[in-house]
Design brief:
The structure holds 2 protein chains of 2 kinds. Chain A contains 9 helices and 13 strands. Chain A is α/β, with parallel strands linked by helices. Chain A folds into 2 domains: 132 residues, Periplasmic binding protein-like II (D-Maltodextrin-Binding Protein, domain 2, 3-Layer(aba) Sandwich), CATH 3.40.190.10; 88 residues, D-Maltodextrin-Binding Protein, domain 2, CATH 3.40.190. In chain A, the strands form 3 sheets. In chain A, strands 1, 4, 5, 6, 7 and 13 form a 6-stranded mixed beta sheet that branches. In chain A, strand 9, helix 5 and strand 10 form a beta-alpha-beta unit. The longest helix of chain A has 27 residues. Chain A starts with 19 loop residues before the first helix and ends with a helix. Chain B is built from 11 helices and 8 strands. Chain B has an 8-stranded parallel β-barrel, surrounded by 5 helices. By secondary structure, chain B is an alpha/beta fold. In chain B, helix 9 links the parallel strand 6 and strand 7. Helix content of chain B is 38%, strand content 12%. Chain B folds into 2 domains: 35 residues, no CATH class; 317 residues, TIM Barrel (Alpha-Beta Barrel). Classes of the chains: A alpha/beta, B alpha/beta.
Chain lengths: 283, 381
């Protein structure tokens, strides 16, 4: 293309071609533009400001204010001494330790959590908070740190059931009227898997019936599944979730740097085995 | 006889004009029906359909629908079809005054007509709750629950227009909602005497519009608020004070709110407990004041199965209590015409515990409680 534009080639069109100095100028301008765009991209990725208003307030005061509804054990509750306790409490305390600040918990009713965040009553929300795609214009969510969705549970000696597709003709226990019941009905009605749904009063009852051999499988939430598989045991859960109920940390919009720090730390906590240890401790 | 020369010339000129474009003109001619169709005003996509009837073994079964903010007609129709298919002959629906009379005397009945016509076509009986103050009827910086006394007559005028418009279609109207809560009274102290004055005016105007309409006094929020509380007044006390203010004779029946919270439907009533059978205490106040023969309509009730709300119960218990509540009303409460559980379906999720009152989710997926009520209404458990 460059040679085609050269003034000494292409007889008959020479008078219409740009002079070489103009071409050089054009290329120079293009190069400058490309360089500027590349710099913008690098800067936006690597040279973000190391702060945002929330992070600045937190580091200045040395306190991370955490909004939490402490009525949801084992995630958010109080211990015997009246102190905040639970999976979420340990998680955010570890985050704060890594950032060199202390945590101040603000106990808020679950339905008021988002208002508390918007009105600056707290810096973050950690409260077994499910990801809600309809609120992403109002808050910034961290990556998920826990999936409380539904799992398929079978006895430890069960070898036939490897997924929901193997549930045809099997007796599957669910909590009556709850999300697991809906999911089992979805498998029956929509996925056309002929499961025999056995509604029971609680997820734990379903797992006990499974362990005793009265059922072939059970659909329960992951927290119940993890806890029961450890104690009293006799059952195991299939790793693939049937539904997702992702717990996340919510921050105000404009907390970009805090979000980055939270996201980075969650990756490290997962890699370090901290999240697994938390799970073993609380479920 | 030959045509005149000028006509032949004209024909010739037209042929000259048309012949080169004959194909194009033919296509235009063929496309004409499409153009005419495109120019027609849009026709209704959703039709009312044939007249239906509700099949049920329990004529007291009802639900509170939330179609006020439902825009799409097919969703309105589908909701009401599902109510019928569940076996509920009654619905309670909210008709906000402020939506339909944005300027004094200018009424827009398009949306409520849609809801009511579909409900009637499904064989349902509609109980209409009417409140929500339009901006022109209240001072600036007040909430839509704030109705100043000088505008009581405007509310009554609206009720007149509403009853007149829906005469023969809606037979039950509720005057206001939970006036014993400060929130529902525009963040003022609840005032039974003032509410009674509103009720009297509204009753007179509603009867003027249609003498056969049944006017219900507002359902009171079950509350144990202590005397002098800025948030609310005990419902039993509020009702007694309405009678003291001369409410008797100004309503044909009473709307009752009877939430069960964490207690079973059979939990015995007591003045210091909020449970389903608190409705019996409300009726006892009516009986004490000579209104024992007036019917009650439970226009809000129910249990919630949110996993993390302190006043919720497990899903299985919610189903059990709800079925028992319907039965109890039919068998043991001769003064109760129907029980409408809160709430059938919301147009969109609230993302709070409120979602767990619903029988059907916004995507029309029926929760197990729906199927169980359906079985109950068909005579099984």
């Amino acid at each position: 293309m460059v040679s085609a534009m050269h003034p000494n080639t292409g007889a008959g069109t020479q008078s219409k071609r740009w002079p070489s100095w103009a071409m050089r100028l054009l290329w120079l301008l293009l190069a400058v533009c490309c360089g500027w765009l590349a710099w913008r991209s690098i800067a936006s990725t690597w040279l973000q400001p190391h702060t945002d208003p929330t992070w600045e307030r937190m580091t200045r005061s040395g306190v991370l204010r955490v909004g939490m509804d402490a009525t949801y054990p084992p995630f958010d509750t109080f211990d015997g001494a009246g102190q905040f306790a639970g999976y979420d409490v340990d998680l955010v305390t570890e985050l704060a330790r890594r950032w060199g600040v202390r945590v101040a918990f603000v106990n808020i009713h679950f339905d008021g959590l988002y208002d508390a965040l918007q009105t600056d009553k707290c810096d973050v929300l950690i409260s077994a908070l499910p990801y809600d795609e309809t609120l992403t214009q109002d808050v910034v969510y961290s990556p998920s740190y826990f999936n409380a969705g539904l799992l398929l549970v079978v006895r430890t000696d069960e070898r036939q059931v490897r997924s929901v597709n193997d549930l045809g003709g099997k007796r599957v226990g669910v909590e009556m009227g709850a999300a697991a019941h809906l999911e089992a009905r979805r498998l029956l009605d929509q996925a056309r898997i002929p499961v025999q749904i056995v509604p029971l009063n609680t997820p734990r009852e379903a797992l006990e019936a499974l362990r005793s051999g009265a059922l072939d499988a059970a659909i329960v939430d992951s927290v119940t599944a993890y806890a029961f598989a450890r104690d009293p045991g006799g059952v195991r859960y299939l790793k693939q979730f049937l539904t997702d109920d992702q717990y996340v940390i919510a921050m105000r919009p404009g907390s970009g740097y805090l979000w980055t720090r939270v996201a980075d730390e969650l990756v490290r906590l997962r890699k370090d085995g901290f999240l697994d240890a938390l799970q073993s401790r609380w479920f | 006889m030959h045509p005149p020369d000028w006509l032949r010339s004209l024909g010739h000129a037209l042929r000259q004009l048309v012949r080169p474009h004959a194909a194009l003109l033919l296509r235009l001619f063929l496309a004409l029906p499409l153009l005419l169709l495109a120019g027609r005003p849009p026709q209704p996509v959703v039709r009312l359909g044939p007249q239906q009837t509700v099949q049920t073994n329990n004529p007291a079964v009802g639900v509170h629908t939330r179609l006020t903010d439902e825009v799409e007609e097919w969703k309105i129709k589908r909701t009401l079809e599902m109510v019928r298919e569940m076996g509920a002959p009654w619905i309670v629906e909210y008709f906000p005054w402020g939506y339909y009379e944005r300027e004094k005397g200018q009424f827009d009945w398009a949306h409520p007509d849609l809801v009511v016509n579909h409900a009637l076509r499904q064989g349902l009986t509609v109980v209409a709750r009417i409140d929500f103050v339009p901006e022109w009827a209240r001072p600036e910086k007040t909430t839509f629950r704030y109705l100043p006394e000088e505008h009581f007559a405007d509310y009554a005028d609206f009720l007149y227009a509403f009853v007149k418009h829906f005469a023969g279609r809606i037979h039950y109207v509720i005057v206001w909602n939970e006036p014993n809560l400060s929130f529902e009274w525009g963040y003022r102290l609840p005032d039974p005497a003032a509410y009674t004055r509103l009720l009297k005016l509204a009753y007179a105007r509603a009867k003027e519009a249609d003498p056969t309409v049944t006017v219900l006094a507002a359902g009171l929020a079950p509350t144990l608020a202590p005397a002098g509380s800025e948030w609310g007044m005990n419902d039993l006390e509020f009702l007694q004070r309405m009678y003291d203010a001369g409410a008797r004779g100004s309503f044909d029946g009473l709307a009752v709110h009877a939430y069960g919270w964490v207690f079973p439907a059979d939990d015995p009533p007591a003045p210091d407990v909020i449970n389903y059978r608190r409705a019996e205490l409300i009726h006892a106040v009516m009986a004490r004041n000579g209104d024992g023969d007036l019917p009650c309509f439970v226009t809000e009730a129910g249990w919630n199965d949110n996993r993390r709300w302190a006043k919720a119960v497990p899903s299985g218990l919610r189903i059990e209590y709800t079925l028992r509540a319907y039965d109890l009303a039919l068998q043991d409460w001769p003064w109760c015409r129907m029980v409408a559980m809160w709430a059938f379906r919301y147009p969109w999720p609230a993302h709070t515990y409120q979602d767990d009152f619903a029988f059907v989710n916004p995507e029309f997926i029926a929760k197990p409680i729906y199927s169980q009520v359906q079985r109950h209404a068909r005579g099984g458990w």
